[in-house]
Amino acid sequence: MTTTENTALKEIFDKRRFRSVALDVAAIYPTFDAKRFLKIALDGLDQLTLMQRLRRMTEALHATLPADYRKAVKILHTLAPGIDHGFATLVLPDYVGQYGLDDFDWSMDALKYFTSFGSSEFAVREFLRRDPERALAIMEVWSRDDSDAVRRLASEGCRPRLPWSFRLDAILDNPMLAAPILENLRTDSSLYVRKSVANHLNDVTKSDPDWVLERLATWALYNPQTAWIARHALRSLIKAGNQRALAMIGAGGAPEVKISKFAVTPRQVTLGERVTLSFDLASKSTASQRLVIDYKMHYVKKSGATAAKVFKLKELTLEGAQRVSIERSQSIRDFTTRVHYPGRHEVEILINGQSLARGFFELRRMID
């Protein structure tokens, strides 16, 4: 996520949002102390991150809603349809996740309701951490629900490495705990759900790739929905050149190809400019070949050492004796997750996991 994107998301919870929520709650709960709510909520707001602002709203609501937990959540039930932004609704399940653990089953039902307005994926993890087996049993039922939002919550909520949340060590240690949920969703008609299943499995590949490969080997990959999940679930293994993963998508053979005219241009770039990779690819076989083409960028770190990152370039079927030209352009700019440093950045072309060409560009220092 870029700094600009993060700033924009923070503004979902700006002063206007807090004031709007205060008015809406007061309309539902006439004795609501809106003045106290805003005093708690807005104190030091500008210095808070996105997720800190979300939690601040949760805490301010808790300080001003009824002390009776169920009464408070019923007010939030009424509030939910009037919130005009999906991410802003995350405060509702967050309230449940923070204050409803001692009312387990009723709270899980509340999370199921709230997820249709945004998502309860972060909040449900509090229940998974408290009692994994109990929470997963309820989520397995969710995975058979008519609502794609609820089915998606079943998978997304128990992702072992969900971004912006804590890891679920129980599932990392034993992926079988969530297997019944994934099995129920392996042919799901909703892309929203399939993306979540694929992301869940991709999380597991980072600690237990064999478990994922063995699980997918039992799935009917001729089903288009299942095949889609498998391809996206294996993306990290494919980028790493894992031959079992490549074979599963039909690209496991050694590529019989020749790369020519490989160029990285311009040779020297300044931060903010673009670098272009181009080459010709010719088949050396009379048979067609399924090829996964990636490129690996060796980024220079502050220490002068390098760290590699693999990017998707293209997947294609190359017919016998066929020749194609391939080009890809990439902006060299800083992100919150990646800072660039001057020096020689090497670039490799990977085909079916094998490095077949190598070049470089020089990132120059900015001149003040």
Defining traits:
Immunoglobulin-like; single chain; about 20% strand; Serine Threonine Protein Phosphatase 5, Tetratricopeptide repeat; about 375 residues; alpha+beta; five-stranded mixed sheet; disordered N terminus; 2 domains; globular; three-stranded antiparallel sheet
Question: Could you characterize the architecture of this molecule?
Answer:
This protein has 368 residues and is of the alpha+beta class. It folds into two domains: 3-248, Alpha Horseshoe (Serine Threonine Protein Phosphatase 5, Tetratricopeptide repeat), CATH 1.25.40.290; 257-364, Sandwich (Immunoglobulin-like). Helices cover 44% and strands 21% of the residues. It contains 17 helices and eight strands. The chain has helices at 3-10, 15-28, 34-42, 50-64, 69-79, 91-99, 104-114, 124-130, 132-142, 148-156, 169-173, 179-185, 191-205, 209-217, 224-233, 235-239, 243-248, and strands spanning 257-265, 268-270, 274-283, 289-300, 306-318, 323-331, 343-351, 354-364. The strands form two sheets. It has a five-stranded mixed sheet with strand order 2-8-7-4-5, with no helix packed on it. A hairpin with a 5-residue loop joins strand 4 (289-300) and strand 5. Helix 3 (34-42) runs antiparallel to helix 4 (50-64) and helix 5 runs antiparallel to helix 6 (91-99). It is globular, with a radius of gyration of 25 Å. It starts with a helix and ends with a strand. The relative contact order is 0.07. Residues 1-5 have low confidence and may be disordered.
